[in-house]
Specification:
74 residues, 2 helices, mainly alpha, single chain
Amino acid sequence: MARDSCLARVTAGVAVGGAVGGAVGAVYGTYEAIRYKVPGLLKIRYIGQTTLGSAAVFGLFLGAGSLIHCGKSY
């Protein structure tokens, strides 16, 4: 039974974190853009910034968690 390499686990963690963070950021950014009545095309910019920021943070933390967990064997 071959174990995945640490790099593969961290990469998968970053990818999953980015996907989850992007989805949450898009929903939250849309909600806030509507709630605070952001005008016109600035809504798209605001939603994009929220989506990318959230994806980056989630990906960073899930990747770091995967890196920390990588050294442990059970």
